[in-house]
Design goal:
Largest sheet: 4 strands, antiparallel
Number of helices: 9
Shape: globular
Length: 416
């Protein structure tokens, strides 16, 4: 969440004869929303479900009486403006022009205060069943993980999800003429839920709750074969007998990954494809493949002792990062030039790379991919015309750029 002052969250405790809970509170919401009791503990992540639609409204609504008048006050001066606030049967009006009015409909409207009862229930539950009943009262989209002193763990996705008619395009605003209405918000059935899995843990990072879940199509958190949630899944699956210290250091483990998509190890997803392509076409790059094979997956040079204060990026991180980005450029720039416009802000460029990287993974997997591409992205306008050829050419291009900064035994030394 980052660090800011004032912070949006704070630590706190509530103690009463029958209610003891401590953890994280959010400014403006009474109660502990993420915390622990003497019996159990729980966590939350934002679920990013598709719970919002926009509607084109009849512009004549602006000729009617506003839903309310909002007074704008300025300290030390008289009130300077009265803002009319309009609302339709879909929700508040958020945009107006001469002939366009757009409203915003969201599924938790009218159920906001249920969250307060849910928070109390999460902290007062005496078993996992009671905790799950409290989750049912949460109107917003959240991933919730639970663990108790009886060695039970569980997962739920909360929230109220609309059932949309089939005649809509989720990428566009809907018509407010009554032909594209969704009924009153209903809870998704079956709700994504699981308890006490054989793997012994749950872990995620704003990823989807299940393969076919209807996430927001315009979500800032993109989805695909590569996702930052893999960092947590890999850590939990490779460590047995976790203690407090190891879980605490998971934050440092995450912080020292660095790739587009806000974290993760992109090389892990393409390593076998890239190494196979190089070895089948040339034997002169083996030292670079060895460098990558011996890499620990973190951007700071050195072992864990360098993760906090290390000042140099790992050679392998620089190599794989530049190599992957060059493969993406050679693969997609000829068909999708608007993704490679110079001067894009860092966040937009990062998002473009993330989307194209996942398309690349589907393309490399071919017919075995979960989403089989119907277009051959490797039809490069020049030479090569194959995935293997593009991978090798990209490596040659990158090495031409990076080799001049070779220093002693460090190939591509750069500051963190």
């Amino acid at each position: 969440m980052g660090f800011s002052a004032p912070a949006p969250v704070l630590e706190g405790s509530i103690e009463a004869p029958e209610y003891k809970v401590s953890g994280m509170a959010i400014a403006g919401i009474p109660g502990i929303i993420v915390g622990r009791t003497p019996h159990h503990a729980w966590s939350m992540q934002v679920g990013h479900a598709h719970t919002v639609d926009y509607y084109f409204e009849d512009p004549s609504i602006l000729n009617s009486t506003p839903f309310r008048i909002e007074t704008i006050s300025v300290a030390g001066f008289p009130d300077v403006f009265l803002l009319p606030v309009y609302r339709t049967n879909h929700g508040p009006v958020i945009y107006t022009s001469n002939d366009t009015v757009i409203s915003w409909k969201y599924s938790q409207w009218g159920f906001e205060f249920d969250f307060l009862e849910a928070i109390f229930g999460l902290g007062s539950a005496n078993n996992m069943k009671q905790f799950g009943e409290a989750v049912e009262r949460i109107p917003t989209s959240l991933h919730i993980c639970y663990a108790d002193r009886n060695n039970n763990i569980g997962y739920w996705m909360s929230g109220r999800d609309p059932i949309r008619p089939e005649n809509i395009n989720p990428w566009l605003p809907l018509s407010g003429d009554g032909t594209q209405e969704w009924p009153e918000p209903v809870t998704l059935k079956p709700r994504p839920h699981d308890s006490n899995p054989r793997q012994g843990f749950y872990g995620g990072w704003n990823n989807k709750s299940m393969k076919d879940y209807d996430n927001n199509p315009l979500d800032i958190f993109q989805y695909g074969p590569f996702h930052r949630g893999h960092v947590i899944q890999d850590f939990l699956s490779m460590h047995n007998n976790l203690n407090f210290g190891k879980i605490r250091d998971l934050a440092l483990n995450i912080a020292t990954t660095d790739s587009f998509g806000r974290g993760g190890n992109t090389w892990k997803s393409v390593a076998e494809y890239f190494k196979s392509a190089v070895r089948e076409n040339s034997s002169q790059y083996e030292e670079y493949l060895t460098l990558l094979d011996e890499w620990n997956g973190h951007f700071v040079a050195g072992d864990e002792s360098q993760w906090v204060s290390g000042s140099t990026r790992a050679d392998a991180w620089i190599l794989q990062n530049e190599w992957i980005k060059e493969v993406i450029r050679l693969t997609f720039q000829d068909e999708l030039p608007f993704y490679f416009i110079e001067g894009l802000d860092a966040e937009t460029n990062d998002r473009h790379l993330y989307v194209l990287f996942n398309v690349l993974l589907h393309a490399l997997a071919g017919q075995s991919s979960g989403v089989v591409n119907q277009y051959d992205w490797f039809q490069y306008k020049g030479i090569p015309q194959t995935a293997e050829g593009i991978i090798v050419t990209a490596l040659e291009n990158v090495l031409t750029t990076l080799r001049p900064v070779r220093l002693r035994f460090m190939f591509f030394t750069r500051p963190v």
